[in-house]
Amino acid sequence: xxxxxxxxxxxxxxxxxxxxxxxxxxxxxxxxxxxxxxxxxxxxxxxxxxxxxxxxxxxxxxxxxxxxxxxxxxxxxxxxxxxxxxxxxxxxxxxxxxxxxxxxxxxxxxxxx
Amino acid sequence: xxxxxxxxxxxxxxxxxxxxxxxxxxxxxxxxxxxxxxxxxxxxxxxxxxxxxxxxxxxxxxxxxxxxxxxxxxxxxxxxxxxxxxxxxxxxxxxxxxxxxxxxxxxxxxxxxxx
Lengths: 113, 115
Prior knowledge:
Oligomer: heterodimer
Mean pLDDT of chain B: 93
Strand content of chain A: over 45%
Radius of gyration of chain A: 13 Å
Strand content of chain B: over 45%
Structural class of chain A: mainly beta
Largest interface: A-B, 27 and 25 residues
CATH class of chain A: Mainly Beta
CATH class of chain B: Mainly Beta
CATH architecture of chain A: Sandwich
CATH topology of chain B: Immunoglobulin-like
Distance between the termini of chain B: 37 Å
Helix content of chain A: under 10%
Structural class of chain B: mainly beta
CATH architecture of chain B: Sandwich
Number of strands of chain B: 11
Distance between the termini of chain A: 41 Å
Number of strands of chain A: 12
Low-confidence stretches of chain A: none
Largest sheet of chain B: 7 strands, mixed
Number of helices of chain A: 0
Number of domains of chain A: 1
Largest sheet of chain A: 6 strands, mixed
Shape of chain B: globular
Order of helices and strands of chain B: EEEEEEEEEEE
Low-confidence stretches of chain B: none
Shape of chain A: globular
CATH superfamily of chain B: Immunoglobulins
Helix content of chain B: under 10%
CATH superfamily of chain A: Immunoglobulins
CATH topology of chain A: Immunoglobulin-like
């Protein structure tokens, strides 16, 4: 079975500052990893995914994440955030052959002017 | 293409009443999932349909919850009778390919409040 821990429930940051949203996972098998974003009053949408290959994956809106197998982490980063990045971000994990995606509790990113 | 749509967007009912949530997946998506988020906690898996068949319903909380997907198109999730702890946001998602490499396309969710 897989599980996901998002270490920060809320992250306030000033506009144009860098940000890192942390995610750790637990799994006894190889995994697929995802970050989803939820803007207010909308559904979740895919930000980026790691399936295999390069451990650094780039997503939409300038976000990127790095898969670290030894630390079982998949932290999300952006070098310079915008007000419009204010949203809730969810880390998720699934496994080959499995049929469900497991989500973390989410991290609320607040970008302040 | 039209996205995943859910109806209603909000529902407020009293304890003991019945509520039915509906989800229309993206056309052609055989995989349909129901998730629930309670009180800002993690988004929890409820069940997964492949076409009209239930592939995995291990996340269904109890027998007050009944999901159907007749004809393999839209799905309904009925809660009967509703309890206070059923309050939360119910998300529906769909994906095209079988297996978990394929990302999920989510609807905007139904916010259910049981009073």
